[in-house]
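Data card: per-record layout.
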Amino acid sequence: MPDRIGRGMIEAVVNPALWVDQHSHEWMDNWTQDADEAYHWFLDSCAGVGETKCALARGNASAKAIEDRIERFMNELYDRPMPSINSIVPAFLTSGDVRSKLFDAMKDPFAWPQFAVLLDKAMNGDPAPFMNPISCGILPDLARDRFDHAELARCALTCSDARAFKKSDPASFPTPESLARGIFTRVNNTSRHFGGPGLIDIDVVIVKHGVTFPSLCQYQASLGYFSHGILPEDGLNCKTDRDPFALSESSLDTMPSEDKKLLETGEELIRTLGEIRRGRI
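The structure for this 281-residue chain is written out next.
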């Protein structure tokens, strides 16, 4: 439909062929490629700004020291979950809770400063602020339309697109043993932390999503294409223009006014897209 859509851009989150060429339980193998890059961007950024802007950088610790502290905390929780009696729903903070929320946080660099505060409080014996967002997720939403099955519709589409198993060949069905082997292979061959990034043209990869942090280079390339039909150079690699822990006006002071306006507009678009993805708009 080139004559109907005009110019278009595909956000390279995953290879679309995998959705039809592989069974759904195999998709994760391709999602666990470069998550360490996002995690180490988080650690490096935190260490770079120091404890005044990143709560985890106590004593202006190095990125490695912050990583070791987080890993040690999760390992301790594995053996001794932390009771959280003051959270909305009293519960135990587990190693799995921290790993899961850490993975979720990697998808949203704008939320890193607040996430660092919550994690630091938990690491210092106050897990309630960290647990409350988790608790809110399990409480029933009384305002929710009980007949709204939009998420089920999405699942139906995903399942219908997935490669089907041959009923005539039961041997092709995954077994508990084969699934377990796949998990161990995935863990051993990919990130030792967690996985799930997409491929993008920004030098820092964000888990599962493409454009999630401002890049003037990328905005200019996109505008050049959509406004004037100028394709960006093949393999163009764009850097981000802001630090997640230093989103201050001072970082824009040296920019030309036109570039500053473009970057600010892009940031607002990113935040709006995030709200749309969460169903808030």
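Known properties of this structure: The chain is about 50% helix and 0% strand. Residues 53 and 246 are 7 Å apart (CA to CA).

See the next section for split statistics.
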